[in-house]
Amino acid sequence: MPVASQTIIDDFLGLVIGIGIGTVVSRLIWPVLPQRVLQDDLLTLLAQIKALLNRDPHREKIQTQLAILPVEALQAARQIRIAGCGEEERAKLIALVRALQTLITRISQLPSLRDRLPEITEQILKPQFERLEIEFKQMLDAFAMCFRQGNCRCNCRLSVGP
User: Fold this and answer.
1) Does the pTM exceed 0.70?
2) How far apart are CA 110 and CA 104, in angstroms?
3) Rounded to an integer, what distance in angstroms lies between the CA atom of residue 7 and that of residue 134?
């Protein structure tokens, strides 16, 4: 059955106008800024690292997110184009994300290594490990607070045991 050319033209114009409106809204009214993506990714990354240390039962899901988030954060860090964020600052952000990638790799191994400790060493090392975990989680919380506030120049002091 033949279709009227006016119907084809109307459908085409409707699609073009819809795409145009969507583009204007996404670019001018509700943009996805790379600095917001970076902030969200880093906050989620720190929360997932903490969940992994807390032996969250959804370990596979967390590890999948921990593999994806740094890549997304690196892309966002490279796209940031704002005053006050020159090449030097961008390089520092990229170095931070790469350091977090290394941290993720090492932390992913901790729960299985902790479970393989012999019982005799567990009695000696368990209090030390627990104190280290508490301090590390405090550090993760301090980083998250700085990222949430958008100010990483805070004077955060972590309590370090004897």
Assistant:
1) no
2) 10
3) 67
